[in-house]
Specification:
Layout: E1 3-7, E2 10-12, E3 18-25, E4 34-39, E5 46-51, E6 57-59, E7 67-72, E8 77-82, E9 91-98, E10 112-114, E11 118-122
Parallel strand pairs: 2-11
Antiparallel strand pairs: 1-3, 3-8, 4-5, 4-9, 5-6, 7-8, 9-10, 9-11
Amino acid sequence: QVQLVESGGGSVQPGGSLKLSCEPRGYTYSSLCMAWFRQVAGKMREEVAGWDNYGRASYADLVKGRFTISRDDVKNMLYLEMNSLRPEDTAVYYCAAGVSSHHCPPTTRTQNYWGQGTQVTVSS
């Protein structure tokens, strides 16, 4: 059974930083088949950061230059470092992993495992 366990969310002032972590328990595929999404209540879930088919980091336009996705294959962890946070970054952030290699990289249209989500609130 696959379980994605996220941590690191919280409240921060505008301009602040947070680092999210995701531990993919029981997941046998590469962390290149994982990504970060976020969702605001009442809106569609959107991809924030992930990897393209060549293993290069890819980002939503709204977070480019501020967010950094990384992975530690030894610890089998996925991270999202978020800097220069803005109020519009407030959302529940989810870690996602494609259910198989046919669902890599994960998108909103692929079959994915999802974490429970971690709240990020940016407010003064």
